[in-house]
Amino acid sequence: MDKYTALNQTLNVATKEQYTAVRLGLIRKRGSVKQRLTLFQKYLSNLIAVLAQENYVAEEECVLEFEQRFGTALSLLSEYEELQIEIELLVS
Question: Which residue range(s) make up the domain with 61?
């Protein structure tokens, strides 16, 4: 059984063009998730810079925002890893 036949059975991909479209779609999704993770990284860097200032006391609103963004980042990281695994399975 060749790669495309196996993919057809698991992803309903009948042609090489469909296989390519599925792969490119996964790569685009991964790029979007990576972009959102990069935004969180920038937010975190800015937050660390602010917290490093002398006598800075984090307000409750700041803490709640961080908790929400951190939870979102964890979900995004899981999604990124799942997409990466799917891509690797397609090309192997």
Answer: 3-91
